[in-house]
Amino acid sequence: MLSHESRRLAVWLIFNVRQNMSASDHPAVSAYSNRGQGVFLVLYALDSLGGGNSKQDVIGCISRGGWYDVTRHDLPPYDGKNEPKYHTLLAWARKDCYEREWMLLTDQRDDWSISRNGRLVLERAIERYRKKEWDVRKCYLWKKSFKKVIDPTYEPSSLDAVRPPEKPDITGLLADLIASLADKKNA
User: Phi and psi (nearest 5°) for 103?
Assistant: First the structure.
């Protein structure tokens, strides 16, 4: 078992190594993964809003636009968080955009602004959806009305991907298992 200090050092090393990576060093984000769909939504919102925005501006734009297909699984917060899961997903998407330099790199806290590269990535992605190189039907986090905006030829059908079942919270399961093993050992 790692000591608290060893864990802190490991986290610090991982963070600093990632900070020193260039945009091309980061692994690709699949267009159809939760993160990839979130990245697209963030870039689309930033492009729609223009200028400097906050996290709440971007989430508000996505909510008002009705782009994210929020379900009951998206509303409870992750452990230790006080916001809906889908807000956290969008914050992770922002991190992915930031690391790939698809957002402007600024010193200001809570500054969400699309970069020239981010706008190019967004334009290319929309083009790929419209040319059918990518398929909006696989984007299960997007509402049907948003899919139609991205690909005007889209029509809802039985070919639309459905959201995968909710995965159990593995951290909670492991904590329960460790606690039960400790109880058995102490009994």
Answer: -125, 155
Tens digit of pLDDT for each residue in 62-111?
Answer: 999 999 999 988 888 888 889 999 999 999 999 899 899 998 877 777 87
CB-based contact 42:58 (threshold 8 Å)? yes
In the chain, which ranges are continuous DSSP H helix? 4-19, 34-49, 55-65, 85-99, 116-130, 144-150, 170-186
Which amino acid is it at 39?
V
Rg (CA), the chain: 19
Beta carbons within 10 angstroms of residue 76's beta carbon: 10
CB 69 within 8 A of CB 143: yes
* Count of CB atoms situated within 10 Å of the CB of 31: 19
pLDDT bracket for residue 132 (50, 70, 90):
very high
The DSSP secondary structure of 47-61, one letter per residue, reads HHH-S-B-HHHHHHH
Q: Record the tokens describing residue 8, joined without a space.
A: 């802190």
Q: What's the predicted TM-score (pTM) here?
A: 0.74
